[in-house]
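Reminder to self: tokens first, then the designed residues, so the page reads top to bottom the way the pipeline ran.
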């Protein structure tokens, strides 16, 4: 859909106490065909909302009369069909997660990059259209269920099965669009930087405790490797922002998994975790971007290592059934609660106090970019097994 078509009847309210920013955003948005309203305070913005019912609000986090989180909660409570993009000059991951959990549809840092601002707004409006349509379908579903109460049991069963299938499909589409609108890759990269930083910290602590000279070179080499990895992650984030193509090479998944295991070797050794790596046959290479695939397994291994007790067991098995490559990552931790099985793949859901809930959604999203998937194959109090499937043959234009 062309932006101009989307914006024919679309009103955007800009709430910012800086007149220069109001003027700049008004010019940019009006050129794209949007109707633009402006406000300098949260109170003025809420008054404009009541009077004009705009589809979208672009609001600064720091306002003279109240902070953006407070205003956001009030907007979502009174105007649920109005979507909100938050902007701030002091952004961090914790604030972004807090705002998204409170109902923000997007999170932008100042100063604005005018090259992508309109695309972000268009993405949020498209997401709004999908979710409102989904709500209408849900309402229609409830109406139909009332009408078919007089039908026989067989017909009710068939309708229920089809309705549940439609609900799952709609939920999948809405979840995928929301993750894409947020910029899953950017969020994933920020999340992934924690892994090499953790390794650098551990090796630095070991150096500070005094080690053999032969070990110093090995530790320094690993630290430099992790620094290079951070640099690669940041370059990937920049590439995504500039919409450059990913680097696709012939990649062997067994090597990617072994490299990911090496990242966690300090934690594995310190906690005496027993690792079993089983790859009974040669794994055929696939056309892929190595950095993306590494994200899948560093996320899965990080979850497993954090879950395992002292002396726990971590098992990795790679097989190549017809047309597929399957990687199973199993641990003997305490398992995943049944009520959390669906939620763990949703953005921002986490059972950990410091977790951001980004790792598993990003892992599944990347696998699906390669027409594969990440699922929980089995879980119990005796442990959990995640199954990653990737087709051997990658269609052209996967990315």
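Designed residues (399 positions):
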């Amino acid at each position: 859909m062309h932006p101009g078509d989307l914006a024919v009847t679309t009103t955007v309210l800009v709430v910012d106490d800086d007149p220069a920013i109001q003027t700049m955003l008004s010019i940019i948005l009006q050129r794209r065909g949007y109707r633009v309203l402006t406000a300098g305070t949260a109170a003025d913005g809420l008054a404009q909302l009541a009077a004009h019912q705009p589809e979208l609000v672009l609001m600064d986090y720091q306002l003279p009369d109240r902070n953006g989180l407070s205003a956001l909660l009030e907007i979502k409570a009174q105007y649920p069909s109005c979507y909100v993009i938050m902007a701030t000059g002091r952004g961090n991951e914790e604030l972004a997660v807090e705002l998204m959990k409170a109902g923000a549809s997007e999170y932008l840092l100042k100063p604005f990059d005018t090259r992508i601002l309109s695309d972000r707004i268009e993405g949020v409006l498209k997401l709004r259209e999908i979710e409102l349509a989904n709500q209408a379908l849900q309402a229609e579903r409830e109406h139909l269920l009332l009408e078919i109460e007089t039908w026989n049991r067989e017909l009710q069963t068939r309708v229920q099965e089809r309705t549940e299938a439609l609900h799952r499909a709609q939920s999948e589409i809405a979840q995928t669009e929301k993750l894409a609108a947020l910029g899953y890759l950017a969020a994933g990269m920020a999340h992934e930087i924690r892994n090499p930083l953790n390794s650098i910290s551990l090796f630095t602590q070991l150096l500070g405790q005094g080690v053999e000279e032969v070990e110093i070179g090995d530790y320094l080499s690993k630290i430099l490797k992790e620094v290079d990895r951070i640099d690669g992650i940041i370059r990937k984030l920049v590439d995504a922002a500039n919409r450059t193509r990913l680097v696709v090479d012939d990649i062997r998944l067994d090597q990617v998994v072994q490299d990911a295991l090496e990242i966690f070797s300090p934690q594995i050794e310190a906690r005496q975790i027993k690792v079993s790596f089983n790859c009974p046959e040669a794994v055929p290479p696939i056309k892929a971007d190595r950095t993306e695939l590494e994200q899948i397994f560093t996320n899965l291994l990080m979850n497993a290592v954090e879950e395992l007790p002292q002396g726990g067991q971590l098992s990795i098995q790679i097989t190549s059934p017809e047309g597929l490559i399957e990687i199973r990552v199993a641990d003997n931790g305490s398992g995943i609660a049944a009520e959390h099985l669906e939620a763990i793949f949703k953005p921002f859901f986490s059972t950990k106090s410091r977790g951001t809930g980004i790792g598993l959604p990003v892992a599944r999203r990347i696998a699906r970019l390669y027409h594969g998937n990440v699922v929980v194959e089995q879980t119990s109090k005796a442990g959990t097994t995640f199954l990653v499937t990737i087709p051997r043959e990658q269609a052209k234009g996967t990315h």
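The chain is about 55% helix and 15% strand.
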